[in-house]
Amino acid sequence: MLRELIKDEEVLVIEGPNFRAGQILTVDCTNRAEYYCSDGTRRMSKMRRSLLVIGDKVVRGPDWNSKCTRYDGEGVVVEFNYLFALKNHNVRVKWNGGDYGSYRMNANYQDLKPTGDSEGEEAEPTVHKVTVTIDMEDTMTREQRAIDINKDVEARQDALDEYIAQTEEKIADLQEEAVELRKYKTDKDAKIAYTIKAHNLDSKTTPEEQAKAMLALKDKGIEV
User: Fold this and answer.
1) Run of H or E residues at 218
2) 51, 11 in Cβ contact below 8 A?
3) What ranges in 82-206 are assigned the alpha helix state H?
4) 78: Cβ contacts below 8 Å, ≥ 6 apart
5) How many CB atoms lie within 10 A of CB 9?
6) CB neighbourhood size of 113 (10 A)
7) Lowest mean pLDDT among 18-22, 36-40, 173-177
8) Tens digits of per-residue pLDDT, 166-182?
9) β-strand 34-38 against 56-60: which pairing, if any?
10) Could you tell me which of 76, 84, 85, 62 has the C-alpha nearest to residue 10?
11) CA–CA gap between residue 168 and residue 163 (Å, rounded)
12) On the chain, which terminus has fewer CB atoms closer than 10 Å, C or N?
């Protein structure tokens, strides 16, 4: 037989009406075979057979398609996956053979079928503690992965910023070189102009222009 539910216990809806299949509710109060459940905004009555709880026994359902679990006859519900409450693989089961697996129990797919029996409340606390530990470890692993990804993004951003700065500097040098090339028709004219500026022969050259002219002559292999 299915065990009685208790107040504040969490349940998963197997079938309507009132709530969607796969939705996780909380038991507000009981009245024999009917249970008043709430999703936080409204409360409706549900029959026990339309609810799945931790400790209920299950077998393969009409939409079973799992090939990775060596299930053995019956299994026991040990956990609800809140991340996929209305989607895929929202119910975790421990099979008689010792294997675990996650399955779909929602409006579209019913991988499992309740047998109409419950394992009982004695084993439930132990199973629940083990499940919470696994969830915490998984959360810590995902958090560390997120931290590592953020570090990688920052490193890539720094490298990109450095590359952009170097490219902008190179572009500026090329643009300046292009301007200098357009000033003189031939290399001979450029050398004469650079020599005049390097030695300040016209007395009009600024120190900055003189320094640039000297560098230009050295680049061309001309002693200043």
Assistant:
1) helix 207-219
2) yes
3) 124-183, 187-199
4) 54, 92, 93, 94, 100, 127, 131
5) 17
6) 15
7) 36-40
8) 999 999 988 987 887 78
9) unpaired
10) 85
11) 9
12) N
Residues 224 and 94: their CA atoms lie apart, in Å, by 88
pLDDT at position 125 over 60: no
Query: What are the tokens at 79?
Result: 């956990």
Cα 96 from Cα 76, distance rounded (Å): 8
Cα–Cα distance measured from residue 13 to residue 182, given in angstroms and rounded to the nearest whole number: 80
Write out the two tokens for 93. 């089961």
Element (H, E) at 44: strand 43-47
d(CA 150, CA 196): 56
Q: Is 209 exposed, middle or buried (CB count within 10 Å of its CB: 0-12, 13-18, 19+)?
A: middle
Residue spans per domain, the chain: 10-120, 122-168, 184-224
Candidates 194, 185, 203, 189; CA nearest to 222 is 194
The number of beta carbons lying within 10 Å of the beta carbon of residue 27 is 19
- Whether the predicted pLDDT of 99 surpasses 50: yes
Count of alpha carbons within 13 angstroms of residue 150, beta-carbon side: 6
Q: How far apart are CA 98 and CA 106, in angstroms?
A: 25
Q: How far apart are CA 181 and CA 187, in angstroms?
A: 9
- Indicate the pLDDT class of residue 127, thresholds 50, 70 and 90: very low
CB 53 within 8 A of CB 77: yes
Question: What is the maximum span of the chain, computed from C-alpha positions, in angstroms?
Answer: 111
Q: Residue 33 — φ and ψ, nearest 5°?
A: -80, -10
